């Protein structure tokens, strides 16, 4: 007779194998070779259980927050006029990084952030959208499995992983409920996802997804829904496993267009922008100097030639344009409020003190996609209305719709330049600091000693992942789900946490979006705009034509950012050899990171037409 007590562990193993027990014998993410002995009977067998992967004891939770289309000078946290009290609090009790950079547009920035590698290197040279990708290694819009995400890495190390809000990295043709789901958030390491897969969505009628299926939105603002869902995920986990850390990727669609927010928020700013975008810039640069965000001797770049002086506008134009900015400001303040709800929940539940928080205030510079005149409804930007000058009358008739669920609001270009104070240009302009420089906040009550101080070390979104791993004492896995992992390209910023004067370790960085390109090397920067006068798709909307333009015709500029941080003095003619040197460095980086062949949006558009024609 078998002694059941003696063999109870072996019996448990047997029951697990045949499915009677709910226990898992192998961790799917960290499968370990079987180390027991399997004989013909239990008596001549030796059982073995794989070790459960656990995060180090006391390991902090990690929260990454990334906003959308926020200019450097928008938030009060970095000298702006728009109130963001919750970001202020995080920064005042953490670190402000003022020399941090993004890729210049949403999907490239997010792919670089999540993988710790340059965006072309992970195949996101443009977008994952079918009409904005191309069949080349740097542009196919599919992050390879050998370039694992932060969620995959942390899940391999015992973390639960959640994502809410904007993802933007799933190819259109895979974004149905039939999948495949390899490039959905759940296929890239997230245990749960609630948000939208595309680049933009309506805030009240979002194209909403939960985990691997589309769901029906409940009519509330998307910011409120994703915050509730994030709190729900954390609450459920904490109840069952209070000692298990979590990683949360919180990425609201805000403040991307459509600018939509309840009137109670936009009305907070009634009359506050009546003095216009020129006055806004002057006030913001003064605030930035006072706070030490920028050098005390900084000067504003000239107003872009396409933007009229505020004083030259008619009273009706001023009334209309001021309302656009009131709505945008309310939208940003409301977004800050929802982040505050998340932070307050963590505080009340006793988890905030052990939570490492990164806040990136924008995935690129302020958006130029609202055209010169602003957008309420697409009809107001038809070529006929603009040509005849009737857009102003139509928009004034619709002024009360600005910011409502009935409108597709985006502010005019003058406010984009104002929100980008003190830089030139805006979103998509990867040649310019105005397109790529976004503030970063690092907050961790247990670990940040020099609270409320500023860091000027050069940084880029590819640095956040290695910074997180170093601070958690976690190594990049050699393989994830059996796939050998490529090396990271970012530089950890941990060296600067306790040393404001530490020299920058990230000394070389390239940029490329739709033809606009630049190279940064040890304080010097060479850059070339490709369509410098294009206001994104708005030019097509108003009936203008963007001519074919050879990349060889692009004019390169040269700046010494050590002395001229906001690119006011072009040194290309003074130092031609330096420019030649940097252009060669850019070419080497382009080859290494799959930037070639050069493609801008117009190339992709024509490529798709050609492919459809062949079909």
Quick summary:
This protein is α/β, with parallel strands linked by helices and 615 residues long.
How does this structure look, described?
Helix 5 (222-240) runs parallel beside helix 8 (315-348). Residues 1-8, 10-29, 536-546 and 609-615 have low confidence and may be disordered. This protein is α/β, with parallel strands linked by helices and 615 residues long. The chain has a single domain (61-506), classed as Alkaline Phosphatase, subunit A. The longest helix is centred in the middle third of the chain and has 34 residues, at 315-348. The strands form four sheets. A ten-stranded mixed beta sheet has the order 7-6-5-4-8-1-9-10-2-11, sandwiched between helices. It has 17 helices and 18 strands.
User: What is the helical fraction, as a range of percent?
Assistant: 25-40%
Q: Which stretches are low in confidence, meaning pLDDT under 50 for 5 or more residues running?
A: 1-8, 10-29, 536-546, 609-615
What structural category do the secondary elements indicate? alpha/beta
Number of helices: 17
Whole-number total of structural domains: 1
End-to-end separation: 73 Å
Topology (elements, then pairings):
Blueprint: H1 8-18, E1 61-66, H2 85-92, E2 95-97, E3 100-101, H3 106-115, H4 150-156, E4 160-166, E5 192-196, E6 209-210, E7 213-214, H5 222-240, E8 246-251, H6 263-266, H7 276-291, H8 315-348, E9 355-360, H9 383-387, H10 391-397, H11 413-419, H12 433-436, E10 440-443, E11 453-455, E12 459-460, H13 464-472, E13 479-480, E14 483-484, H14 494-497, E15 508-513, E16 516-521, E17 524-528, H15 538-541, E18 556-560, H16 576-592, H17 601-614
Parallel strand pairs: 1-8, 1-9, 2-11, 3-12, 4-5, 4-8
Antiparallel strand pairs: 2-10, 5-6, 6-7, 9-10, 13-14, 15-16, 16-17, 17-18
Helix pairs in contact: 5-8, 7-11
GO molecular function: hydrolase activity; metal ion binding
InterPro entries: Alkaline_phosphatase_core_sf (IPR017850), Sulfatase (IPR050738), Sulfatase_CS (IPR024607), Sulfatase_N (IPR000917)
Keywords: Calcium, Hydrolase, Metal-binding
């Amino acid at each position: 007779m078998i002694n059941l007590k003696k063999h109870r562990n072996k019996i448990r193993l047997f029951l697990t194998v045949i499915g009677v027990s709910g226990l898992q014998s192998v961790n799917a993410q960290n499968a370990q070779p079987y180390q027991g002995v399997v004989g013909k009977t239990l008596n001549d067998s030796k059982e073995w259980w794989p070790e459960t992967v656990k995060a180090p004891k006391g390991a902090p939770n990690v929260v990454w927050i990334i906003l959308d289309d926020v200019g450097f000078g928008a938030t009060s946290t970095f000298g702006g006029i728009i109130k963001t009290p919750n970001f202020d609090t995080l920064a005042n009790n953490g670190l402000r990084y003022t020399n941090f950079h993004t890729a210049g547009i949403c999907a490239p920035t997010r792919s670089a952030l999540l993988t710790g590698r340059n965006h072309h290197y992970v195949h996101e040279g443009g977008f994952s959208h079918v009409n904005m990708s191309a069949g080349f290694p740097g542009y196919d819009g599919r992050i390879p499995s050998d370039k694992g995400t932060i969620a995959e890495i942390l899940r391999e190390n015992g973390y639960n992983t959640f994502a809410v809000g904007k993802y933007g990295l799933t190819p259109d043709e895979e974004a149905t409920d039939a999948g495949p789901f390899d490039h959905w958030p759940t296929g890239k390491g997230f245990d749960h996802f609630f948000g939208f897969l595309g680049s933009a969505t309506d805030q009240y009628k979002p194209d909403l997804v939960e985990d691997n299926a589309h769901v029906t939105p409940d009519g509330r603002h998307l910011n409120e829904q994703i915050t509730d869902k994030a709190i729900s995920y954390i609450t459920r986990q904490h109840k069952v496993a209070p000692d298990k850390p979590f990683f949360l990727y919180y990425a609201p669609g805000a403040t991307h267009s459509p600018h939509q927010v309840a009137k109670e928020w936009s009305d907070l700013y009634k009359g506050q922008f009546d003095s216009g975008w020129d006055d806004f810039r002057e006030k913001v640069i003064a605030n930035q100097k006072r706070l030490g965000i920028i050098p005390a001797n900084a000067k504003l770049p000239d107003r872009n030639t396409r933007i009229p002086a505020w004083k030259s506008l008619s009273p009706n134009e001023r009334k209309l344009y001021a309302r656009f900015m009131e709505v945008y400001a309310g939208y940003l303040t409301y977004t800050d409020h929802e982040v505050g709800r998340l932070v307050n929940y963590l505080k009340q539940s006793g988890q905030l003190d052990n939570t490492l928080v990164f806040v990136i205030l924008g995935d690129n510079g302020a958006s130029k996609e609202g055209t010169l005149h602003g957008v309420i409804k697409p009809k107001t930007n038809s070529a006929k209305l603009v040509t005849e000058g009737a857009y102003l009358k139509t928009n004034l008739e619709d002024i009360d719709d600005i910011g409502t669920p009935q409108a597709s609001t985006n502010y005019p270009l003058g406010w984009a330049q104002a929100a980008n104070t003190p830089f030139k240009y805006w979103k998509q302009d990867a040649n310019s600091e105005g397109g790529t420089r976004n503030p970063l906040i690092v907050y961790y009550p247990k670990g940040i000693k020099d609270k409320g101080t500023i860091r000027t070390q050069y940084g880029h979104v590819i640095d956040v992942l290695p910074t997180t791993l170093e601070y958690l004492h976690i190594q990049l896995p050699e393989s994830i789900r059996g796939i050998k992992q490529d090396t990271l390209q970012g530089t950890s910023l941990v060296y600067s946490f306790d040393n404001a004067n530490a020299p920058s370790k990230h000394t070389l960085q390239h940029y490329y979006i739709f033809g606009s390109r630049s190279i940064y090397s040890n304080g010097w920067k060479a850059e070339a705009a490709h369509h410098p006068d294009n206001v994104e798709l708005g030019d097509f909307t108003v009936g203008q034509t963007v001519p074919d333009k050879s990349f060889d015709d692009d004019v390169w500029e040269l700046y010494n950012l050590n002395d001229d941080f906001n690119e006011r003095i072009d040194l290309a003619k003074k130092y031609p050899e330096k420019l030649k040197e940097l252009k060669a460095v850019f070419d080497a980086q382009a080859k290494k990171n799959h930037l070639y062949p050069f493609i801008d949006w117009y190339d992709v558009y024509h490529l798709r037409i050609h492919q459809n024609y062949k079909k």
